[in-house]
């Protein structure tokens, strides 16, 4: 029967009567997964879902695929109950509920779950997975032309800054890495699994970039009792030495670039304009705020980037720093109408005040501290 069933699935999958007979045969043999597959093909979706659930968690992808195709509310609710543990008192991994809501097109609910998942994954130190979940959700929102919640955009920006720091350290681009780590350090509570390693790396990169006062400030945080014993032994003396040498002189000011809203000149990695008070979109290659004169985007994920910054990154490694797809430097283009693309993105960006609905050292050695 197994071979016959495979043949029917390949050459006559719309034969409802035949699939029903096969389903009943496998059900009689207590082969729930196979029976469910053929009940699905016979359009007995309720029975199919029941037997998929009987088969267990290995069949969750099949459940999600079926429910998202048939779009029957009762089935969706039943699957949600199963995933939440209402059926068997065993809550499933939240990633499955997230994937279900994405599959059925309930983007708003998927956003809420994605933010929760990313928070849990960051707590566990799974930064890449958290980044991927946020990115997938961000892209879904853009496809559906929905408003991008501030929380989602902010979380993606922070965790992407962490990823960018590692990328630029490998490129020996210490100033960009330092700026990204300074940003991360201001949100260090989001990185509890690697707090000390991240701050230690920030000290090293700020030193290499010539930002002595920033290095001193980060070192002062590290020598606090709750952090000091966790510093990797080979970095302790350097951190102690940096923290002892108080730096009175200010670091060289960060270069300025124009706000894309009002053209006010502000530090290039600052993402809120002090003049017009707008939140600014960030470049996925450098973490700097976007500028109209070099507006570009990744050909794959379509997220915005500064042309010269993205080209520099791609010439080092031809891979998008956001979506990790292969991108040839020559394929990058400056937008024909940067103003229009900027306005389109701004229309999707949600102001934080409107977010109530959602509830909302050596370069080669310090690099080892930043790990997923």
UniProtKB/TrEMBL annotation:
Q: Which UniProt keywords apply?
A: Cell projection, Cilium, Cilium biogenesis/degradation, Cytoplasm, Cytoskeleton, Repeat, WD repeat
User: What ranges does the record give for the region Disordered, renumbered to this chain?
Assistant: 349-372
* Alphabetical list of Pfam families matching this protein: Zf_2nd_IFT121, Zf_IFT144_1st
The IFT121-like zinc finger domain extends over 281-327
Source organism superkingdom = Eukaryota
Q: Where in the cell is it found?
A: Cytoplasm, Cytoskeleton, Cilium basal body
The record's Gene Ontology biological-process terms are: cilium assembly; intraciliary retrograde transport
Task: Tell me the InterPro entries matching this sequence.
Answer: WDR19/dyf-2, Znf_IFT121-like
The Acidic residues compositionally biased stretches are: 359-372
Keyword Acetylation among record annotations: no
GO cellular component terms given for this protein:
cilium; intraciliary transport particle A
Q: Could you tell me which PANTHER family the record lists for this protein?
A: OSMOTIC AVOIDANCE ABNORMAL PROTEIN 1/WD REPEAT MEMBRANE PROTEIN, WD REPEAT DOMAIN 19
Name of the protein in its database record: IFT121-like zinc finger domain-containing protein
